[in-house]
Amino acid sequence: MGQTGTGKELFAKAIHDISPRRNKKFIVVNCGAIPDSLLESELFGYEKGAFTGANSNGKVGKFEEADGGTIFLDEIENMSQFMQNKILRAIEDRKICKIGSNKEVGVNVRIIGATNIELKKMVEEGKFRKDLYYRLNVICFKIPSLIERKDDIFLISDYLIEKYCKVFKKNIIGLSPKVKKLFNIHKWEGNVRELRNVIEYAMNFENSKYITEASLPNEFIGENEVRIKPEGIVPIEEMEKEVLRKTLDWFGWDEAGKIRVAEALGISRSSVYRKIAKYHLEPPDMINIS
Q1: How far apart are alpha carbons 115 and 111 in whole angstroms?
Q2: What positions does the domain Sigma-54 factor interaction occupy (predicted)?
């Protein structure tokens, strides 16, 4: 589980690569990108002549292709109830049946599912099969967003800069100090995918040894700019003067009142006297009105 762009497929591939299945195939299927009418044939394959327009030689499905390896089902929340049932049967029986065939074929695959939403909520709403949810949710990894792992921002940036230096035949060393500050405060709503796009964009335009602010996308800079409207800005001393005056009016201008003012403002009593003198403050009844 993880937000869009956090690198769920990369994480799944890493699991495959360090497992005993690493010498077999790692097959990726984006369940959200394939129409439901085609997803069944994509996953399970079909026999020749199974339907109009079918390949004359038939087709091997992704499950059979991944036999001995791993199949990565991305955006599993987009599967229809029909496909959810078919997947559940394949997991339980370790067998698949091609479209247009009555013969079951045994398959040995590791299934890794991925989603960017809370599947349990979909289960509660009746949009995702409870039995499939618990069958898939044997081991669940929550991949944090990029903003939750800030140390990775610069680690990934260095990797991407090295990668794109080879692609663009450039000799860029890293990020400038200003860009590092911008990267550190950016929200990174697109996560690692957004970071990759920003680095690739900058590498196209940067001609110095470091990625500078000038080479970043305009919208990226715009989001991180802090704009303060000039109207309504009050000097700090004016604010201090007004706060001190109102606090004295509230607690009193006598000795006891000034002691309480000092406590309320977190300053010494001598500082209260000094600031009264500095700002020429007087009790209301001593102010001459002409």
Answers
A1: 13
A2: 1-204
Instruction: Give per-residue pLDDT as tens, 53-105.
Output: 667 778 899 999 999 999 999 999 999 999 999 999 999 999 999 988 889 99
Question: In the Cβ-directed half-sphere of 138, how many Cα atoms lie within 13 Å?
Answer: 7
pLDDT of residue 283: 86
Query: Residue 161 corresponds to which tokens in the numbers above?
Result: 């800069």
Q: In 42-64, which positions are buried (b, 16+ CB within 10 angstroms) versus exposed (e)?
A: bbbbbbeebeeebeeebbebbbb
Cβ neighbours around 193 below 10 Å, total:
15
Segment 5-27 shows an average pLDDT of: 95
> Are 154 and 175 in contact, with CB atoms under 8 Å apart?
yes
**Length reported for the chain:** 290
- Number of helices (H) and strands (E), helices first, in the chain? 13, 9
Rounded CA separation 144/103 (Å): 43
**Angle between helix 151-168 and 177-185 (nearest 10):** 130
118: tokens are 């809370």
For residue 10 the two structure tokens come to 């990369």
How many other C-beta atoms lie within 10 A of the C-beta of residue 118? Answer: 11
Distances (CA, A) of 240 to 94, 142, 229, 269, 273: 75, 48, 21, 16, 14
For 206-226, how does the pLDDT look when each residue is reduced to its tens digit (9 = 90+)? 999 999 999 998 877 655 554
